[in-house]
User: Fold these one by one.
Assistant:
Number 1:
Amino acid sequence: MLGQVGSGLAQLVVPALVGQSSTGSFWLPPPDSVASGAVDHAFHFVMYVSYFFFALIFGLIVLFVVKYRRRPGAEAVKTAKSSLALEATWSLIPLALTIVMFYLGFVGYVELRSPPERAYEISVLARKWSWQFTYPDGTIDNNLHVPVGEPVRLVMTSDDVIHSLSIPAFRVKMDVVPGRYTRTWFQGKELGTYDLYCTEYCGTGHSDMLASVVVHEADDFRAWLKAAGDVLGNNPPAKAGEILFRRHGCGSCHSTDGTPRVGPSLQGIVGQTHAMADGSSAAVDENYIRQSILEPGTKIRQGFRNQMPTYKGRLNDQEITAIIQYIKSLN
Ligand SMILES: [Cu+2]
């Protein structure tokens, strides 16, 4: 209720002051979620107030420097007296402005924190360094797919350190914290693909912790969900392996083109013999890959650190077999 009155008021007052903001600007991408308006209003209000005072204060500084500079015949004289009217003015105007800023910010915050009851719920798991989205039917994907025009609630947690989910086009940003759940919501207005970032510095692969948000037509979304739900059934093994590889975020640490990242590139590894950190060596075959996925700590490849999470309980045998097929196909 408060939110509605507030944003109604903001929509009446603010666009008149700052111009409409339905397209993007130098500062912000186009607002593509229904709740974006409140954030934009607060942002633009603060920005234009700052422009105004920047110009006023620096304008007066320059003016006074020129006008009252010392020159022959104009010596310094002390004439300042206290003026209640002046002091009241420069206190009350900023007070009123900051109250308006707080109000606009608060209204937007309340709106961003209160998902509508009937929202579609997707769970989010953040992990160094990928996103995993789980849909109500159990489908898992590393990109966020949503139907257009339907409110979507994200219930988020982290497997390791604090991450933060940010979708600039939707003006959504919320910390993702291990050991607890945080939530946020949005409602896509236009079909399209948008960027999703981690905005909490979370280690080496932080800048690779990216995903896409794909806003589908409602029917397309259901079709996508159906196809995505049965990867193994809908694809030949190597292709299924590639999809699982992407979904489980392997790609944020392993390239498939020869470049090492946090982990070694997986191109052409099958059939090779790798030196391990403890001085031993191991031949890369199906069993080695399987062990790398389930017990990554037992054999550490030389030149790399024990940074790979275990996928025990996350990938079943069939899925691991498909991933092995995919890694073999990279030879
Ligand atoms: Cu992160």
Number 2:
Amino acid sequence: MVTDHVGVDHLVVTRHALVRQVLTDPVTYAADNALDAITPMPVAALRVLARRGFRLPPTLANNSAASHPGIRATVADALRPDRVAEQRDWLTAMVRDRVTALTTRLDAGSPVDLYADLTADLPLLVLARLVDLPASAAPAVTAFARAALELFWAPVDADRQLALADTVGRFHAVLRTFAADGPGLAARLRTAGHPPDIVVGALFFLLVAGQETTSQFLTLLLHRLHGEPAVLAGLADGTIRVDAVVEEGLRLDPPIVTWRRVATRDTTIGPVQVPAGASIVLWLAGAGRDGAVVEEPTAFRPGQPGSRRHLAFGAGAHRCLGAQLTRMEAAVVVEQATPLLSGTGVVRAPWCPDNLSFRMPDAFVIRRPGPSTDV
Ligand code: HEM
């Protein structure tokens, strides 16, 4: 299907097999357009970014050049499964403390926002420990990451673009300083000989990819589970596995609904002719609900046949490097935080703005019904 989005034509691929075919053929379909701004940026916004020294060279997700495997290997080493596993106890203790405090508030009849009060900064705090990213100003990082997702992936008007470019540009300048002398991953990328723009680009993408996607997913998953009492009961009595719940959540509620590739030559996808240069939007969320791979596509049935065959993390040469980390964080949150959901009503469901790729839920507020409340 060809569709128009703010004046740009995209070919939308929806079937699981075809989405996978495109993702795993980097020769015919390059990743170069992955971070292109959906709404073309006016000169005024470009000037704001340029004043702050903003550049986004091909680094990770948008890099089909020969430099990609080397950069990817350094980042992958920082996110190795054993390093991720080492963070689990610390994260469990922190989530447990937060859940205890939130339980007290719920018991007192107060509303609780599971996004703002629980999930919004969790991924950043873990990431900061794992790859030594600056976590001191978590709200600033969250604001920057959300601004970046809106600036590059949302339909935005010129005034909004200017404001977003200012937020993104300011934070990019902070990252540039950190990239020049920061420890951890920044130091390892420098030691591996990558130029400053690449170090900044990698940190920029990790903060967006590692922080926002995961906090969005945790919020969406908790909201989904709120409406699945049988699954909550199965988790509580141990008949449903936590990891199966996480996979089914990734399949049904992936925080990244689409991802892009660009055709490098004239080709065909299924019966459709695709000219060289065409922008291809891969509907990852649709692929997870394809009846050809999963038994009951729209039902939340942890462990059902096909549940793990989702493409929430992409596939092939650019497959997500944070998949293990996301799974660990989501498992901890499901284990520790789902008891909060029982016996509560939804005061405010997550609202997701118009965005080509990211869900960006803004809140998820629950409360215990009491004599004076009507939830
Ligand atoms: C629910 C959470 C997440 C989702 C749904 C997600 C999804 C994705 C997707 C769809 C891609 C593009 C894959 C492709 O082009 O084939 C990607 C790439 C990437 N993700 Fe994630 N991601 C998540 C969390 C994370 C986390 C926590 C990190 C790191 C801390 C991370 C790091 C990366 C990196 C570095 C890439 C680029 C890999 C490359 O181009 O070689 N992601 N992710």
